[in-house]
Amino acid sequence: MSFARHCALLVLLVGISTMAARARSQESSIAIDEGNSSARFVVHMRIPMPAEGTLNKVSGGLRGGAGTGWEVLVRVDARSLRFDGPRWMDRVTRSDSFLAVDRFPEFGFDSEQFSDAILHSGGPLRGQLSLRGLTRPVSFKLLPSACANPGRDCDIQVQGTISRHAFGMNAYRAMVKDNVDFHFRVRLRPAATTP
């Protein structure tokens, strides 16, 4: 390879490295506002009765940038579970038969990278859900944003359905169907202001 080609290759590599560094510098990590975020779930019963719950301790963050894409990392404190229904259903949902809250007090979702367009217009949100000590690939849906600054001026909303059997929740098959619906509502912490 000639000296001129070596120089051209070196200039190209330096240019690529500089662009990558610039893209990384434009990335940010924005924490979830725990006081204004929550998760809801619906368990589908075989008899007509409500079976919904709320989890009020949601943490994590949104990482990335408009030019590089985003990832969302969500952690949910299962001990914050509040069930809308009879107290026995709350006890069963917390028990080892379902969420096993005492053994697994936290569950989480780590998304794959998704584009800024999906953050605003909505679309598929794939990633890994860790629940009851098991991690499985899942596909949720990011709902279209109702504002120009998702997470700041309006909620980031994600919904989807999982198979409870895939996470070892096999009890009460005669009463409870396999599908469990989740709906995450996330707000981000306000941007830091400089004096």
Could you characterize what this model shows?
The chain is an alpha+beta fold. The chain has a single domain, classed as Lipid/polyisoprenoid-binding, YceI-like (Lipocalin, Beta Barrel). The protein has three helices and eleven strands; from the N terminus they run αββββββαβαββββ. The protein has helices at residues 3-25, 87-94, 116-121, and strands at residues 28-31, 38-45, 52-55, 58-65, 69-77, 81-84, 106-111, 123-131, 134-142, 156-163, 176-186. The protein has an eleven-stranded antiparallel β-sheet, with helices on both faces. A hairpin with a 3-residue loop joins β4 (58-65) and β5. The longest helix is centred in the first third of the chain and has 23 residues, at 3-25. The relative contact order is 0.17. Residues 5-26 have low confidence and may be disordered.
In brief:
The chain has about 200 residues and is an alpha+beta fold. It has a single domain (about 30-185), classed as Lipid/polyisoprenoid-binding, YceI-like (Lipocalin, Beta Barrel). Helices cover about 20% and strands about 40% of the residues.
Decide which structural class fits the backbone: alpha+beta
Largest sheet: 11 strands, antiparallel
Order of helices and strands: HEEEEEEHEHEEEE
Fraction in helix: 10-25%
Mind telling me the CATH class? Mainly Beta
CATH architecture: Beta Barrel
N→C terminal distance: 55 Å
| Large-scale geometry | elongated
Low-pLDDT windows of residues: 5-26
Number of strand segments:
11
